[in-house]
Every structure is written in structure tokens, then in C-alpha cells.
Amino acid sequence: MKKRFILVLVLMVFIQFSACEKDDICVDGDTPNLVIGFFDAIDTADAKAVTLLRIKETTLDTTLGTGDFDRTSTSDSIGVPLRTDESNITFAIITDSADGDTEDEETGNIDTLRITYNPREEFISRACGFVVQYDNIAIELNTDDDNWIQDINVLQTNIENSNNIHVKIFH
Amino acid sequence: MSRFSISIFMLVGALTLGFAQDRPESPPEDNAKDSIEYKQAYGLRVGADLSRMVLSFTDENYQGLELVGDYRLTQKLYIAAEIGNEEKTQTEELDNIALYNYTSSGSYIKAGIDWNTYENWYGMNNLITIGGRYAFSSFSQTLNDYVIYNSDRFFNEDGFLPGAAPNEEFSGLNASWLEFVLGIKAELFANIYLGISARLGFLITNKEADRFPNLWIPGFNRVTDGSNFGVGYNYSISYFIPLYKKTKKKKKEEPEGSELQE
């Protein structure tokens, strides 16, 4: 009788083992955003927020979400999403922005950045599945008569998370 | 986890069914005093796992078969083995959005020993065993479909973009593990046994593809992130083929509970 009882107990422990698994929640990773930090062109170690910043993805012609990227935001760094199914993306980065005459139109000093990269699919964990990470990030600034962006420095060409600044823009 | 509740249910059922039979007649009085011996059957027991058969019929995402066998070596020691083939398709979801869907398919073999800890009454042949196995599985995984998890909703307001290379098969995978087995076998009718076992596996080797890890291994079941342990079970029905008989040495004139003199 005692033996039987112990056996059932041990089996209960087995079931405890299997019932509760930590890998049901996705906490291990995400498709990263490209984090851009804005710095002073002269004193390059100083972070410097862009006045009335707006960022627009040119293919969709859509401004990045209004929350963090609100015009009045004085943040000196932002994360921008890249296309996971393409290897390039173009953003219009606008300073001193204002609403234009038509909806979605933005006025201000517009500088256009073309970002090229190699997307790479990566299995993160059972709960998260696949994400895309980016290799060989390169950024090209379209020059015009009046660039407010002075210089661009890619700090990190391979991006696996959004925890730190990947690209510095000096202005 | 309902199947585990069922397993407990059936376990308790089998315990009461199998072992709560009436105490059979004691050996004749005169035997008990002097000649103290009776013959026990030795031989081979072969069978199949019922749970895998039932699941194959009821679960459209599962196909599997496991054959079980053991051979009695001594009074308490058996060599035991299982051989099986399984195919299972699973979908991993996040908030009801399917993240990826994959099929694991392959065969396995497990071999080891069972040690019967149950003291049978005269004429009974039941077993409560602890045992160990070394197991090896050779299999493939196919990533049928998947999407790219991205919490940034700029390009896709709801849903995720599909991955670039669906239906990729990763073959030539294998794994080996050690298994701790707790089992019960009850003789239902002459030479017909119903058995239940619970298994705790510990992965030793695990050869996986670079792009997609082994999430489910035939014979081992689910592989947990950051852990080498896996759990399994089976419900076997088996037939005992008696090959020869051997006398069980009986304890001499035993006072209550003296198991030492065996």
C-alpha cells in the first residue's frame, strides 16, 4: 500500500514538471528597430534633439506613429522600423516641420535618407518564433541645397535588438 | 494537460483493478511449511502502446505507433525495449495569431531494464517497476509555415508578414537521451497485461538545424527551452509468451516482514 502511494506521488511530480512551462510567453526578442540618435554637429558628444521632428516613410507616404514621434517631442533618439521583406527603405526626416496644405503633407526642411541592409530571419525561441535581424546597414543622405543633417555615422552595422543607438545623425 | 489527468485517472483505475483482486488461495498448507517452492514463468512479453494508437485515430495532427517488449532475466530483473515511429504537426500561437507550424517525423528505439519492486502473492504476476532506458531518435522537422514576429505595427497594423522560405525540411536530425521509467503492469487475463508507464527523459545529444531547433522529438516529446528534461508516458497492452519455468526460492519460515533473508 505504501509503495503504491509513493508511486502515485512521484507521478504527480512528473505532471507538475510538464504542466508549467516558461516558454509560453514571448519575452526573448523582437524584430528590432533602427535606433537613430541625434547629436550636435560641433560638439559631437552632445545629444541634441531635433526641433519639431517628423519622420515619414516615403513609399507609404506615412508619418511614423504620432505617440513618440510627436512634433513637440524633444527626444534625442528614436527607433524607426525597417521593412523586413525588402533590403532598402527611404525616410524623409523633417526638421521645423508643420502641417502642409493637404492632409499628410509636411513642410519644413526635408532631408532624405536611404537605408540599405540585408534582412536575416532568426529563430528566437519557441514562444516568439522568427524575427528579422539586419546586417550590413548603410545609410546614404540625398544631398540638396539646404541639408540640415551635417553628417551620419553608422555605429553598428548588424542589428539584433533595439537597446542602443545604432546610427548617429549630427546636425 | 488533460491527457495527463486522464493518465492519472487510468493509473488509479489500473491500480485498483489490477491489484485489488481477491487474495488467491494460499499454497496448500503442507507446502508452506516444508517444500517451499513453486514455479514461475519466464519468457518474452510483447505488446503495443494503446495511447499512440488512439491518438492516431482521434488527432488528425498525430500519427504514431509504439511496440513494447520485455524479457524476464531473473526474479526481479527484466530487459525492456520500446520501438516507435511518430509524426506530429504543431502550431505555435501568440495571442491567437499563428506564428509557425511545423511537423516532426521520425523513429526511435529505447532499450534498458526494468526492476520489479512488487511482491506478488502466490500465483499473481503483477509488476510495479522502476527502470532506465537509453533512447535514440532519428527524425526530420519541416517548417510548414511561419511569420515574422514584429511588435512594431507600422507596416502591418494587424498580423505579421509571412517568412521568406516556408515548407523547408530539416532532415538528418537525431537525439539521444536517458529515460527514468516508472511502470505498472497488471495481468488482466491469463498472459494478457495492461501497463502504464511514466517517463522522465534527460537529453544527452541533440543534433539540430542551424535555422530551426528541435522543438519536438519523436519518443521524447516536447523539448523545453533551456532545459534537457522531457516527459512521456504510455499505456501498453501486451501478451506474455512463457518460454520456461523456474523455481522461485522461497523465504524460509518467514516472520512478518523479514525481507532480508532472501
Compressed to H and E, one letter per element, the order of chain A equals: HEEEEEEEEE
How would you sum up the major sheet of chain A? 5 strands, antiparallel
Number of strands of chain B: 10
Helix content of chain A: 10-25%
Strand content of chain B: over 45%
What is the multimeric organization of the chains shown?
A: heterodimer
From the alpha carbons, calculate the radius of gyration of chain A and give it in angstroms: 23 Å
Of all chain pairs, the largest interface belongs to:
A-B, 40 and 41 residues
Number of helices of chain A: 1
Kindly name the structural category of chain A: mainly beta
The strands making up the biggest β-sheet of chain A line up spatially as 3-2-5-6-7
Give the class of chain B from helix and strand content and strand pairing: mainly beta
- Helicity level of chain B: 10-25%
How many E strands of chain A?
9
Q: Taking strands numbered 1, 2, ... along the chain, how are they ordered across the largest sheet of chain B?
A: 1-2-3-4-5-6-7-10
Number of helices of chain B: 3
Write down the secondary-structure element order of chain B: HHEHEEEEEEEEE
Tell me what you see in this structure.
Chain A has about 170 residues and is mainly beta. Helices cover about 10% and strands about 40% of the residues of chain A. Chain B is about 10% helix and about 55% strand. Chain B has 3 helices and 10 strands. Chain B has helices at about 1-20, 30-35, 50-60, and strands spanning about 35-50, 60-70, 75-95, 95-115, 125-145, 170-190, 190-205, 215, 220, 230-250. The longest helix of chain B has 18 residues, at about 1-20. Chain B is elongated, with a radius of gyration of 24 Å. Chain B starts with a helix and ends in a 13-residue tail after the last strand. At the A-B interface, helix 1, strand 6 and strand 7 of A face helix 1 of B.
